[in-house]
Design brief:
alpha+beta, Glutaredoxin, four-stranded mixed sheet, (2Fe-2S) ferredoxin domain-containing protein
Length: about 140
């Protein structure tokens, strides 16, 4: 007789904590030679620290799709932000400059709770439907 495998569930984040999904796949977070980029790893650490400060989450994805536009980050709204109309915001070509803006936005509440920093508007894109569905768990 086999036993059901127990899975540990993380407690749900507070309703006002937004989250991030950060691509660290084949092209994102890589240097020109395909090796892990130290700056991207440091950005991920900064994202994790910012999310932890507001009790949010960071999910590292193997690939979020548009490899030509690496590095990709998705800012996910909190439960309250989603209730107020916030939706995930997909950002491409995220460097240290944009990372600072993403962190400030997360600290302010993220989509639906705080306005997106104006300079991030040039980085917003609409991903392929299959990537959106994978992220949202459909």
């Amino acid at each position: 007789m086999s036993r059901a495998k127990k899975t540990r569930r993380r407690p749900a984040p507070p309703p006002d904590a937004c989250g991030l999904t950060v691509c660290h796949g084949c092209c994102c977070a890589r240097d020109g030679y395909g090796r892990r980029d130290a700056e991207a790893v440091e950005r991920l650490d900064r994202f994790r620290a910012a999310a932890a400060a507001v009790e949010g989450t960071v999910t590292v994805a193997n690939c979020l799709g548009p490899c030509a536009d690496a590095d990709v980050v998705v800012v996910r709204p909190s439960a309250l932000g989603r209730r107020d109309g916030g939706r995930p915001v997909w950002l491409c070509r995220v460097t240290d400059v944009e990372a600072d803006l993403v962190i400030a936005w997360v600290e302010a509440g993220g989509p639906g709770a705080a306005p997106m920093p104006e300079l991030l508007a040039t980085k917003v894109f609409v991903p392929a439907r299959r990537h959106r569905e994978e992220l949202e768990g459909h």
